[in-house]
Amino acid sequence: MEIEKIISELQYKAVRSSGAGGQNVNKVSSKVVLTFDLKNSQGLTAEEKILLETRLSSRLTTDLVLILNCDEDRSQFKNKEIVTKRFLELIKKGLVVPKERKATKIPKSVIRKRIKDKKNISEVKKNRRKPDF
Predict the structure, then answer these.
(1) Structural domain boundaries of the chain?
(2) Which candidate, 36, 34, 33, places its Cα nearest to that of 6?
(3) In the 8-state DSSP scheme, what is residue 60?
(4) Edge-to-edge strands of the sheet including 31-37?
(5) 30-48: per-residue pLDDT in tens?
(6) d(CA 72, CA 85)
(7) Which CA distances in Å does 106 have to 10, 110, 111, 121?
(8) What is the pTM of this model?
(9) Pick the CATH number of 3-95 from 3.40.50.720, 3.30.70.260, 3.30.70.20, 3.30.160.20
């Protein structure tokens, strides 16, 4: 993964924020929309693209384009920084391959203890019954 190359492939678009905010919202385009074309990226290898496609499938469009928004700050520049940071974290998390789980065997002492406890509880319950004459 070449971070510099990936960052150069990002496309930013400034949009007017929606919702409440008074007159400032109507005048200033502070919301930033980041788009990243996963399919045509030169900074990722084929294996990385496949891995990201499976991991980020719910966030990708049908054309394999990732779209992220940020309108947390009133500054367009800060929103651009925030959305870029968020994008890089998302990509890094998507590329992490989890370790394979090794199945462990239950120790014999644990099995013996469980059976012993079951017998003990069974005996206690048996002793609670009315005597059979």
Answers:
(1) 3-95
(2) 36
(3) B
(4) 11-15, 31-37, 65-70
(5) 889 999 998 888 888 888 8
(6) 13
(7) 50, 7, 7, 22
(8) 0.68
(9) 3.30.160.20
